[in-house]
């Protein structure tokens, strides 16, 4: 495989891993909150979190472009205070991948939290545990399989992201080109051979991630 | 132990739990048929459910005062709870379960893990996973876990109901030993007149969310019928 393709593969893996790591704490915490009984604004938050699953990715990308562009609320703030450019850089790729894969992490983790017997948390309270301790000592370990599965799904989604990424990061060779963007470009340039090589790599990586997710979910819970 | 349950109203499925009673004693039995509100009453005292109205006070501590807008959170009530199924934490070992609640206070030697485990005959199980122990052992671990939190009141929800007759006899002996050793007041939910007569010194009989009778278990269970004991 050509040097350029290896660079694209490494870059895609790197930004996918980074975006998944970045959304993990917030995604898990939000999943736990959404698994709690009713609280004000819960339905609204649930809907907003699910939006990237149903809104066209290109539209999500346009929203990100508006937010993180130099005249956008967040983009202007970051440039002025930290001197950081987002749009059309690798950072924009990470943000786009994170936003698009966030719902998968939250939904899968939420189901895992909902499956925990609420009686266990109640008994933990009678034993003196507060919410933070319950989260770290009960909820998190008991939902771990679902969280790992959700993380792998989010990672797989990030690997294949196209629409939002091309809007907010473009397709700049050596700078923001991911596997998905490069496949598209190769096909546009009638370089089908190169496109199919990346296609093979993409399928292999996605298969490994989804298979791991399924394997973790189906594994019997450990009763020590 | 003095437990006041004044003007309690809690909506249940087809009837409300309505209580206005003051209880005094070391081990008080809550007796009644399935669905009469026994577990809901324990949940109220533990702070796991909120009554629509009412006032709950344990000795000098106000646990719940709906009119005054006060409600002590479960983690501050100091009330140990042993639910019917034990509700052991499945990802922790027996020792992990036992020490979960004991971290909040420095235990006196009487409440050391080793001593409690020895009394309840689970010392050999400390390293085992909770998936590897029997139903009776799970109940003893749940009881030990609650005891190690050094509660001012212990709530026991039919702790022996799932055991066969032989194990129930052993469980009853252990409960009597716990009563003698730790002197922690208990509320003991049970269907079994034998169990109640063996360890309780006062009884309230609940039906459809109301107290229909209360008094000394020995006197209330004095009439024996062919099918077992009957409340007089």
Most extensive protein-chain contact, per-chain counts: A-B, 20 and 29 residues
* Proportion of beta-strand residues of chain B: 25-35%
**Helical residues, percent of chain B:** 25-40%
Helix- and strand-based class of chain A? Answer: mainly alpha
Number of H/I helices of chain B: 8
- Assembly type of the chains comes to heterodimer
Percent of residues in helices of chain A comes to: over 70%
Largest sheet of chain B: 6 strands, mixed
Query: What's the Cα radius of gyration of chain A?
Result: 20 Å
As a whole number of angstroms, the C-alpha radius of gyration of chain B is 17 Å
Uncertain residue segments of chain B: 224-228
Question: Largest sheet of chain A, if any?
Answer: none
Average pLDDT rating of chain B: 89
The first-level CATH class name of chain A: Mainly Alpha
Which of globular, elongated, flat, extended, rod-shaped describes the shape of chain A? Answer: globular
CATH topology of chain A: MetI-like fold
How would you sum up this structure, described in words?
- The complex is a heterodimer of chains A (224) and B (232).
- Chain A is an all-alpha fold and 224 residues long.
- Chain A has helices spanning 3-35, 42-54, 57-68, 73-82, 90-114, 118-126, 131-142, 144-159, 163-169, 179-188, 192-218.
- Chain A has a single domain, classed as MetI-like (MetI-like fold, Orthogonal Bundle), CATH 1.10.3720.10.
- Chain A starts with a helix and ends in a 6-residue tail after the last helix.
- A 6-stranded mixed beta sheet of chain B has the order 7-8-9-3-10-11, with helices on both faces. In chain B, strands 2-1-4-5-6 form a 5-stranded antiparallel beta sheet, with helices on one face. Chain B has a two-stranded antiparallel sheet with strand order 12-13.
- The radius of gyration of chain B is 17 Å and the shape is globular.
- Residues 224-228 of chain B have low confidence and may be disordered.
- Chain A binds chain B through residues 117, 119-120, 122-130, 137-138, 141-142, 221-224, and chain B through 46-48, 73-75, 77, 79-81, 83, 85, 87, 89-93, 100-101, 103-104, 129-132, 145-146, 149.
């Amino acid at each position: 495989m050509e040097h350029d393709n290896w660079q694209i593969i490494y870059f895609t893996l790197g930004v996918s891993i980074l975006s998944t790591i970045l959304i993990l704490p917030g995604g898990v915490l939000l999943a736990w909150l959404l698994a709690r009984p009713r609280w004000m604004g819960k339905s609204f938050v649930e809907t907003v979190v699910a939006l990237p699953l149903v809104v066209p990715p290109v539209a999500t990308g346009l929203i990100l472009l508006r937010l993180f562009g130099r005249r956008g609320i967040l983009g202007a703030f970051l440039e002025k205070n930290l001197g950081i450019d987002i749009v059309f850089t690798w950072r924009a790729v990470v943000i786009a991948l994170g936003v698009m894969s966030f719902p998968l992490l939250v939904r899968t983790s939420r189901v895992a939290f909902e499956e925990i017997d609420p009686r266990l948390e109640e008994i933990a309270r009678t034993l003196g545990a507060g919410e933070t301790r319950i989260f770290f000592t009960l909820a998190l370990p008991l939902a771990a399989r679902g969280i790992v599965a959700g993380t792998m799904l989010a990672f797989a989604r990030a690997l294949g992201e196209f629409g939002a990424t091309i809007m907010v990061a473009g397709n700049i060779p050596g700078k923001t080109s991911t596997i998905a963007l490069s496949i598209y470009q190769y096909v546009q340039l009638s370089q089908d051979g190169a496109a199919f090589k990346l296609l093979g790599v993409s399928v292999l990586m996605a298969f490994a991630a989804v298979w791991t997710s399924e394997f973790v979910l189906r594994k019997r819970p450990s009763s020590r | 132990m003095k437990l006041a349950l004044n003007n309690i109203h809690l909506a249940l499925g087809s009837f409300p739990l309505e209580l206005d009673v003051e209880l005094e004693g070391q081990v008080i039995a809550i007796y009644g048929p399935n669905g009469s509100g026994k577990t809901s009453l324990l949940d109220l005292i533990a702070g796991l459910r909120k009554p629509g109205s009412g006032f709950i006070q344990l000795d000098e501590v106000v646990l719940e005062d709906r009119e005054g807008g006060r409600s002590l959170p479960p983690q501050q009530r100091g009330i140990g709870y042993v639910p019917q199924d034990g509700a052991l934490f499945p990802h922790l070992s027996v020792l992990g379960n036992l020490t979960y609640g004991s971290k909040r206070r420095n235990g006196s030697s009487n409440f050391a893990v080793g001593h409690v485990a020895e009394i309840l005959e689970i010392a050999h199980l400390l390293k085992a996973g909770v998936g590897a122990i029997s139903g009776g052992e799970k109940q003893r671990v749940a009881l030990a876990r609650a005891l190690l939190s050094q509660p001012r009141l212990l709530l026991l929800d039919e702790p022996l109901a799932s055991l066969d007759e032989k194990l129930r006899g052993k469980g009853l002996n252990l409960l009597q030993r716990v009563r003698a050793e730790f002197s922690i007041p208990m509320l003991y939910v049970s269907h079994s007149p034998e169990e109640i007569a063996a360890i309780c010194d006062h009884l309230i009989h609940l039906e459809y969310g109301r107290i229909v009778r209360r008094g000394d278990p020995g006197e209330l269970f004095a009439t024996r019928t062919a099918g077992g004991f009957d409340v007089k």
